[in-house]
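pls design
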């Protein structure tokens, strides 16, 4: 595995050195996001915040602006909060200690393992989706990987495999194998360096594994939004409001909108919906508007909710 990784690994900007800050930033960005998407964001982020201290001291809106387009903005807020913790508690130096790293804001078991193994070569497992898929196939594991108990078992298994003195490369090798060869669909088994020892392949079940129960589909919500343009001195401006300090999209800016819990009785199409919007905004935001027309419809999907706006 190590020989294969060193010969075939992708040249990625966060692999240029073992700087724990850069590794931390990359691992947070790579959550829920493809590598190709992350690369330009990572380069811009590191250019703007080249050190942990620079990130810790930056205004939050600047950090969020640099993150704009990556989504899951709580990742950016937690990353900055974690950087501030390191400055306050560890003199600006990312600690080489499992308990300390795991105590940083937004750092879960996988991220802690990645930082400790890649930056410090500590023998800690870093189990993400790629690793669970590779090990499930290699060892013919038939437990549901959506269950926390299965993940915990795979973490123990991964930890037992780490060779002395090569934790970072070994963890990255399994991740890379999952990303490039042992892919979710149509795995390239003939290119795999460990195919001869893979129990899933031997049993002809490599495409069935890993087993994973399906998540619930996102809950649909119908929302009515108002696009309100200024006039006179406010010509060219659009009215936005700031969301609450906690919860979904905390402190982000948005068009004023309300959730329509049910279609009004005797609904008469768009006119009735606009009437609901007017009354709700007047009651909730003391905002008096007179809608002219239905402008457009849009959809925005979160992991657990789908907004039809």
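designed seq:
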């Amino acid at each position: 595995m190590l020989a294969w990784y060193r010969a075939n690994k992708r040249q990625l900007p966060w692999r240029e050195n073992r700087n724990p800050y850069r590794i931390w930033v990359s691992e947070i960005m790579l959550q829920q996001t493809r590598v190709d998407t992350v690369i330009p964001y990572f380069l811009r982020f590191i250019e703007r915040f080249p050190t942990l201290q620079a990130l810790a001291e930056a205004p939050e809106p600047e950090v969020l602006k640099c993150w704009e387009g990556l989504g899951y903005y709580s990742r950016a807020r937690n990353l900055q909060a974690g950087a501030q913790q390191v400055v306050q508690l560890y003199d600006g130096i990312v600690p080489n200690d499992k308990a300390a790293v795991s105590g940083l804001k937004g750092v879960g078991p996988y991220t802690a393992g990645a930082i400790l193994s890649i930056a410090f070569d500590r023998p800690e497992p870093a189990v993400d989706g790629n690793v669970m898929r590779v090990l499930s196939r290699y060892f013919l594991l038939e437990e549901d990987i959506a269950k926390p108990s299965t993940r915990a078992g795979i973490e123990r298994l991964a930890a037992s495999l780490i060779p002395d003195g090569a934790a970072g490369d070994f963890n990255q090798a399994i991740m890379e194998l999952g990303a490039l060869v042992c892919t979710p669909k149509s795995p390239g088994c003939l290119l795999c360096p460990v195919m001869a020892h893979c129990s899933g392949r031997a049993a002809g079940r490599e495409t069935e594994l890993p087993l994973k129960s399906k998540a619930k589909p996102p809950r649909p919500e119908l929302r009515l939004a108002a696009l309100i343009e200024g006039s006179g001195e406010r010509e060219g401006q659009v009215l936005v409001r700031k969301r609450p300090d906690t919860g979904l999209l905390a402190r982000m800016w948005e068009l004023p909108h309300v959730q329509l819990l049910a279609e009004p009785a005797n609904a008469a199409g768009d006119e009735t919906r606009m009437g609901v919007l007017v009354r709700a905004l007047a009651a909730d935001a003391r905002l008096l508007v007179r809608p002219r027309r239905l402008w457009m419809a849009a959809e925005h999907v979160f992991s657990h909710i789908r907004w039809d706006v």
